[in-house]
Prior knowledge:
Layout: E1 3-9, E2 14-21, H1 24-43, H2 46-62, H3 64-75, H4 79-96, E3 107-108, E4 113-121, E5 124-128, H5 134-147, E6 151-155, H6 162-173, E7 181-183, H7 188-197, E8 201-207, H8 210-222, E9 227-230, E10 236-239, H9 245-257, E11 269-273, H10 277-289, H11 309-319, E12 323-327, E13 341-344, H12 350-353, E14 360-366, H13 369-376, E15 381-382, E16 384-388, H14 392-401, E17 406-409, E18 424-425, E19 428-429, E20 442-450
Helix pairs in contact: 2-4, 3-4, 3-6, 4-5, 9-10
The structure holds NADP nicotinamide-adenine-dinucleotide phosphate (NAP) and magnesium ion.
NADP nicotinamide-adenine-dinucleotide phosphate (NAP) binds at residues 128-132, 155, 157-158, 187-189, 192-193, 196, 207-209, 212, 215-216, 230-232, 264, 355, 357.
Amino acid sequence: MSDSATLINPATGRAIREVPRADVDEVDEAIARAVVAQRAWAAGAPLERADALRRFARVVEDNVEELAQLEVLNSGHPIESARWEASHVAQVLNFYAGAPERLSGQQIPVGGGLDVTFHEPYGVVGIIVPWNFPMSIASWGFAPALAAGNAVVLKPAELTPLTAIRLGELAVEAGLPEGLFAVVTGSGSVVGQRFVTHPDVRKVVFTGSTEVGVSVAAGCAQTLKPVTLELGGKSANIVFDDADLELAAASAPGAVFDNAGQDCCARSRILVQRSVYDRFLELLEPAVRDWRVGDPSLESTQMGPLISASHRSSVASFVEGTNVAFRGTAPDGDGFWFAPTVVLAERGDRIAQEEVFGPVVAVLPFDDEADGIRLANDTIYGLAGSIWTENLGRAVRVARAVKSGVLSVNSHSSVRYWTPFGGMKASGLGRELGPDAAEHFTETKNVYFAADA
Ligand code: NAP
Ligand code: MG
């Protein structure tokens, strides 16, 4: 390996270890091995792939605690969240382990013979992962891709590669063929970019910023490579005057401050109907003050540090010059801490438009249902959102009118591995998870067999 990067524990600011940075030749070697491994993998019986993925899931289950501790160390995730994420990887693998025998094609009536379709794997799939949910986002790509008969080359974010590296080792321990699932560490501009340009990588899955996502899609267009994009968000938490205000206010901090707001689904705008605006803020304030920020290794902690010093500076720059209503608490000292912050905003303010990716929420009032919908749709993004109302008709109307890929009514749920996930507008292209994800890693082949010899 030519080079290495130093990982930092974001809760202490101290160095953890060095991780190699692959150069282009090393990426090409991993892709070449993946090409060979994929042929054998796809040629096997569906049950062989299903069994191998179930074994992989079991090995991940057996190592949940180790994976979770690695995420606490490398990413500063609270231990309870990190355990959930590691278990989630096993669940995603188990779910898509059910896909190989279910990737049925069609038989289509034709004259003079037989017409059938096949779901053919692409070959090698490149997966580019960000630093905010290193292992769960990786699994949303690699589990269905492998289930559909592909090989995977995976690039974790440079800041947070440890759990991905470990998952790569666990795959081999579970008996997946060598080279079938390769984790390649290094920079986005070298490793990630090589996935985009390499002719043998036939599909790319990218999660990260809208800016880099657009450049990845443009690169994939050069070789007509399909691409799935999961990008940023500025999701709305819409609170109507007929909502259960106590519940809406009590749950609002978790919906934006979970993972220190470093979540593409963060409800980072709270839109409150004007008639209940003051009452809602009164209820929100104690919930924000009670949000427990601190040592991520403690089970009582709800929020850890931000990922890096430079990201903390970026988050802080969004708050400068805004009207801060109130803040929660955060530890002093080493580590990249930032207290949860509630800002009163106006439409068009930078804080109401741009993704902060930190524990900062903008609160804005709206007048009526039509105005609430207009305001919810008033950003370039369209990933997630929540609607709080006790009026069923309104819930249906607003859920249909908000241009977002993932909405929840009277809750903040976004991710269930068995339901589709992804964004509209600048939040992305394509969907992950859900019942159809394995099929998204295939292309349809139609074959006509003439029977009238
Ligand atoms: P990013 O710069 O878009 O990076 C995401 C991934 O892409 C990383 O693995 C990165 O590698 C890689 N990459 C960077 N440049 C590349 C290139 N030219 N070609 C191919 N791959 C490339 O995102 P980030 O720096 O992690 O976060 C920045 C912002 O992205 C956040 O503030 C947030 O707005 C958004 N974001 C969204 C999500 C989401 O889930 N939708 C997740 C994370 C971030 P390196 O890490 O090595 O640079
Ligand atoms: Mg970046």
